[in-house]
């Protein structure tokens, strides 16, 4: 079927008209309204996601990656640049300073983070090794904090905001152990990060059962060759209200895999208890809100 024209049909999508029909191609994964259009927020989110994934994009690159009409993309890019959500260099757009400001403040000001940070620093001081805190996002862990480098720091190329497959890390296994079995199965297939990564569903469930019994998870070079980690999940913010909201994250300490020592487990679990005590009450559940 021959492509005869393409343009903005007024709903923000690229409209591709064939010889016999007009075909609308909305972005995958976004919900259209009753009129068949993406909301303004969804369009902005598409653009920011595309720029984040690519590092920087031209107008044509944004159009290609998002499926938005060129005129719509240009209008939104101009608006995002004016508001400092994006920064333009020549014809390229990259994430702007306002996003960095909000991201940094969001991380540093979160009630759970503030409660956990002193314990993370104490754990690093006690062990001298890299300390991570992360949360679960689908099949991946997202690094919320990294304290180091200390000993062995150069061998652990993680960064705040970075991601790793949950099934290959001690942080992820500690968090997956708190999830229903059906949710864990829904994350398959599990791909290997190293030759030691546990990828079989049955073997992973057996590993998670051990995590539940022990209270901590072990990564024996499964995420990075030569790097071993002990990790434990921390659930805080519980109170007596039926509306209580719990924040769940995980904390780990990483060492050379040939120097993994069970004596690191006690300070790790002590840090867990300190975080639970410090972040026992979620301020969002305290009286006074609507």
From TrEMBL:
One of its GO terms (molecular function) is DNA binding. SMART domains: HTH_ICLR (SM00346). Keywords: DNA-binding, Transcription, Transcription regulation. Pfam families: HTH_IclR (PF09339), IclR_C (PF01614). It comes from the Bacteria. Residues 38-97 form the HTH iclR-type domain. Residues 98-290 form the IclR-ED domain. Residues 1-26 are annotated as: Disordered. GO terms for biological process: negative regulation of DNA-templated transcription. The keyword DNA-binding applies. Residues 13-26 have a biased composition (Basic and acidic residues). This is IclR family transcriptional regulator.
